[in-house]
Design a protein that fits this description.
The chain is an alpha+beta fold. Among the domains are: 57 residues, NADH-quinone oxidoreductase subunit E (Arc Repressor Mutant, subunit A, Orthogonal Bundle), CATH 1.10.10; 119 residues, Glutaredoxin (3-Layer(aba) Sandwich), CATH 3.40.30. 32% of the residues lie in helices and 9% in strands. The radius of gyration is 18 Å and the shape is globular. It binds FE2/S2 (inorganic) cluster. FE2/S2 (inorganic) cluster (FES) binds next to helix 6.
Length: 256
């Protein structure tokens, strides 16, 4: 483990005795990344899905259970709108007007209300994105540490303009505001994973690593759409992260 970057959220070893199962339990939907850092961070990515499926039904099977679980935590349905939208995005990869309408129906809200909320937040994708959504923080701390160069390097290496998806469907690169890990600039969030201390020079190896990860997942049969993965609960090996340009933590994770 690198001294420069001890890992997710400043993990300094006090949780190193925990296994992934200790942290997140075993009753999750989907699969975790092939490599995702210390198991202590596992609580933040229990529902990572390799492939989104724009055609997948929303809120069926295990996803119905998760929606019910979400609803049980709030005083009324309206209050559960943000996590319900997140769940829809997790399944389909983005929140289309149709998905917004389905969420509205579930929560007894008007489609216009849901649309107003969903379009306010940039974290809800309004259009399909690549398998890996690369979000480069260009806010102040990262900016003074070379974020613009990192952004440029991602766009050059993928041959895309910001927001475009590569032809192979793997990458979409976008700019992000502060990702809340300002001590480790430049920070890049790729799907749920954080890559910290990223420099322009490390960009090709990060992309290569992700290509390999996608290839391994495809060849091992681990890739699955939301519908296929539901209830299967496959696990992949845990690998330690933490050095410059390595994935160090996973963000978000609504219901552990
Ligand atoms: S400024 Fe980049 S994470 Fe805060």
């Amino acid at each position: 483990m690198s001294v420069k970057n001890p890992g997710w959220a400043g993990e300094t070893g006090e949780f190193s005795h925990l296994t992934e199962a200790d942290v997140r339990g075993t009753d999750f939907v989907g699969e975790r990344p092939v490599e995702g850092g210390h198991p202590g961070g596992a609580c933040s990515y229990p529902y990572h899905l390799a492939d989104k499926d724009p055609e997948a039904p929303l809120f069926e099977g295990p996803y119905r259970e998760r929606l019910d679980k979400i609803l049980s935590r709030y005083p009324n349905k309206q209050a559960a709108l943000l996590p319900a939208l997140s769940l829809a995005q997790e399944i389909r990869g983005y929140v289309s007007p149709e998905a917004m309408a389905e969420v509205a129906k579930e929560l007894d809200l008007s489609p216009a209300y849901v649309r107003g909320v969903a379009t306010f937040y940039t974290m809800y994708n309004k259009a399909p994105v690549g398998r890996y959504l690369v979000q480069v923080c260009t806010n102040v701390c990262c900016n003074v540490c070379g974020a613009d160069e990192v952004m440029e390097a991602f766009l050059d290496a993928t041959g895309t303009a910001q927001g475009e998806t590569t032809e192979d469907g793997l990458f979409t690169v976008v700019e992000a505001e502060c990702l809340g890990a300002c001590g480790f600039p430049t920070v890049v969030q790729i799907n749920e994973r954080y890559f910290e201390n990223v420099e322009a020079e490390s960009v090709p190896s990060i992309l290569e690593r992700l290509r390999e990860e996608a290839a391994v997942a495809a060849s091992s049969g681990a890739r699955a759409t939301a519908a296929e993965a539901a209830g299967q609960g496959r696990e992949a090996p845990v690998a330690a992260g933490g050095s410059s340009g390595e994935p160090t933590s996973d963000a978000d994770g609504e219901e552990a």
